[in-house]
């Protein structure tokens, strides 16, 4: 987290202020990784008529550890979880292209009757 509320602000639990802190951090930072689960009305993951259920993980190339702002503890956690920042720069997805496809395929406005995207 780049912008951190004081302990007093946290204790007050004001959802509007908490949202503003979260939004400020999201707006300031580049996306690194996204996990995506799509559920139907009954809470089921897609199986595409196979014996398996599916979720997706995407690594993005936008983040440059040498240029962009970041929270050190978050970067260390991601490294421990196997995120390779140099590989992401080389082989990761472009976030703007991903967002366009997400929009074009109708996932933003729920064109497929999906119950939940997390």
**Largest sheet: number of strands, sense, barrel closure:** 2 strands, antiparallel
Number of domains: 2
Mind telling me the C-alpha Rg? 17 Å
How many strand segments? 4
Q: Termini distance?
A: 21 Å
Output the strand order for the largest sheet: 1-3
Mean pLDDT over all positions:
88
Tell me what portion of residues adopts beta-strand conformation. 5-15%
Kindly name the structural category: alpha+beta
InterPro entries: CNOT7/CNOT8/Pop2 (IPR039637), RNaseH-like_sf (IPR012337), RNaseH_sf (IPR036397)
GO molecular function: nucleic acid binding; poly(A)-specific ribonuclease activity
Report a brief summary of the structure.
With 118 residues, this protein is an alpha+beta fold.
């Amino acid at each position: 987290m780049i912008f951190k509320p004081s302990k007093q602000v946290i204790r007050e639990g004001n959802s509007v202020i908490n949202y503003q802190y979260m939004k400020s951090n999201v707006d300031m930072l580049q996306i690194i990784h996204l996990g995506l689960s799509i559920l139907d009305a009954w809470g089921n993951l897609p199986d595409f008529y196979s014996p398996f259920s599916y979720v997706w993980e995407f690594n993005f190339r936008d983040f440059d550890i040498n240029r962009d702002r970041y929270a050190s503890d978050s970067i260390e956690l991601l490294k421990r979880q196997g995120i390779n920042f140099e590989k992401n720069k080389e082989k990761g997805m472009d976030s703007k292209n991903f967002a366009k496809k997400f929009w074009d395929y109708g996932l933003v406005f729920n064109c497929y009757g999906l119950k939940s995207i997390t």
